[in-house]
Amino acid sequence: MCSRPRRRRNEVPLPLFTAVTILFAAPGAVAPVAAAPTTAPAAANSVTPLDKYLDNLHTLRATFLQTLADPHGREIDRASGTLIVQRPGKFSWDIRPQPVAGAAAGAGTTSAPSSGGAGQLMVCDGTNLWFYDRDLQQATVKPVDTALSATPAMLLSGAVDVRKSFTIAPVGEREGLDWVLVEPAGAQADFRSALFGFEHGELRRMILEDKLDQTATIVFEKIERNGPVRPAEVSFAPPAGVDVIGTPHK
What we know:
With 250 residues, the protein is mainly beta. It has a single domain, classed as Clam (outer membrane lipoprotein receptor (LolB), chain A), CATH 2.50.20. It contains four helices and 14 strands. The chain has helices at 14-24, 49-54, 144-149, 162-165, and strands spanning 59-69, 75-86, 90-97, 100-101, 111-112, 120-125, 128-133, 138-143, 166-174, 177-184, 191-199, 202-210, 215-225, 243-245. The longest helix has 11 residues, at 14-24. The two termini are 19 Å apart.
């Protein structure tokens, strides 16, 4: 049902996917993540701020700012958006590009535009995972079990023992936040590590490092925990005229 040509692009950006799946995982499942502080990790089996945060978490609503830096620390992408989570298994992650801080390589300007456009929307309704690119007017859909099994995020769905596949440990305080380091136990994961930063028990920041040495930093704001979430906020229907790739499960 696709008529217009398409560009190749990541259907589900890894930093976004990892961040969200950690939060919508079934109760008791703890999740992934990246660049470690200098403090040596504590015992991996100790209860961490991440464990405590996920206890009794049913819904979450927050705005966020995400930046992506290259291996040299230069910001190459910036976006803001809204995250809505309803555990277990449902979420909406709406992201809008923002101007990149700093100049483009070789340019003398003080700021450079990001990729621009109207942004993307990722929705998991508990059965299907949708990724909608507003600029391409294209939506990709996969069954949740297929989408999750293709990435380390499957370990966050509650189907397996996360602690058998990830090393999870508190790594101390830095910049006023209590940090938890998560690293995959195997070599097949798409990311190297992730850090979760907590302030007074509230998740404030995530730092994820991928195998290309790129670092995504996500700062959460305006957080509402266990508030009401309408069914329409964690479901998706393709707008008229949008190309759909894949077949949703009923």
